[in-house]
TrEMBL record:
Superkingdom in the source lineage: Eukaryota
Organism expressing this protein natively: Zea mays (Maize)
Keywords (A to Z) from UniProt: Cytoplasm, Repeat, tRNA processing, WD repeat
Main location: cytoplasm
UniProt name for this protein: Transducin family protein / WD-40 repeat family protein
InterPro entries the UniProt entry points to: tRNA_Anticodon_Mtase-Reg, WD40_repeat_dom_sf
GO cellular component, one term: cytoplasm
Subcellular location: Cytoplasm
């Protein structure tokens, strides 16, 4: 079971190459969960301090990982 988070989960993505689950959160951050160790690896926060309405993640590895998000200010961040 994954831990609870302090913001809404907007998207998830399996990064099969790295054995991680990326969890996109509404505070414009992404948590990386190690599936084999069942542990949080890191949580990456965007320098843009805003809440999100939506998020979409692509890629099969950390190296190829991309995030696009829509903010409450009607902006799109990539």
């Amino acid at each position: 079971m994954l831990p609870g988070f302090d913001h809404w989960v907007l998207d998830t993505r399996f990064l099969e190459v790295d054995g991680l689950l990326a969890i996109g959160l509404s505070d414009n951050s992404v948590a990386l969960w190690d599936l084999s160790k069942r542990a949080l690896v890191t949580r990456v926060k965007s320098p843009e301090k805003c809440l999100l309405y939506s998020m979409r993640m692509w890629g099969d590895s950390v190296r190829e990982f991309l995030v696009a998000s829509g903010t409450i200010l009607n902006e799109i961040l990539i």
